Fold Amino acid transporter transmembrane domain-containing protein.
Amino acid sequence: MFVCKGTTGDVLSGKKSGDEVHLGILQQWFGIQWWNSREVALLVTLVLVMFPLVLYRSVESLKYSSAVSTLLAVAFVVICSGLAIVALVQGKTQTPKLVPRLDYRTSFFDLFTAVPVIVIAFAFHFNVHPIGFELANPSDMKTAVRLAILFCVVIYFIIGLFGYLLFGDSIQSDILVNFDQSADSAVGSFLNTLIRVSYALHIMLVFPVVNFSLRTNIYELFFPKKPLLATDTDNKRFVILTLVILILSYLAAIAIPDIWYFFQFLGSTTALCLSFIFPGTIVLRDALRISTRKDKIIALVMIILAVVTSAIAISTNIYNALGSKS
């Protein structure tokens, strides 16, 4: 959720990375004004777009907004791929590196900082049960998960490849920020703007789905004896919980404007726990006595690798952060 808000802020109000300043689409259109600052832009999108959508109690009510967000993601991939192919034909692309380049500024342990980003990109486990619960046939959730993973892999691969071809080493942690660059033609400038607008809308429409699962889990944690959130008639409790989540996500997006920090530290802690450590411990605990010896060995190896990788990634990020300040 924090990443969703942060990405929206980058697109609408820009981002400053070191000496580089990337303007948002609102600032490019209207100049730098108080009302298109990150704080105000995020607040407006929160109130006008996200808040009405998160008031739905069931995920089925979000099927149309989710479908639109998926189409916008596909449009983003298609346009980005088209720009990269045109640049490739014109000889303006960067040459991809087949192996990581290590120099005096980069150590082998820096490679581990990519793991949290990859993990958090596939950390959707918390959505499985709330969404599967509303399916007419819950067993269809297995097929839905596999298709979702395949869809994500294809999109991530295409964006990663063509994004690097377009921007090379200057690519930002949020690739949308790079599309503020001026194109050689009016069509190119229009496509750059279209990419940023379409994906910003995509993120806004994805936010309610992520919020739904988080809100459901928090509700069941604090109110285990109450009716399910979808059937609970206490609107006051529902609205208060929704507002608290929205306000916290807004404040986090303002306080930490660079989504790279979210990816790094949430990816190496929360996402790793959700993706590897918690599932592994469930298999090892084997409350239903259904885990085989092979399952337990795989679970143990998975937990060990997750803990080691997390420790290396966190320590490397802290070391790099302290080194950049000195």
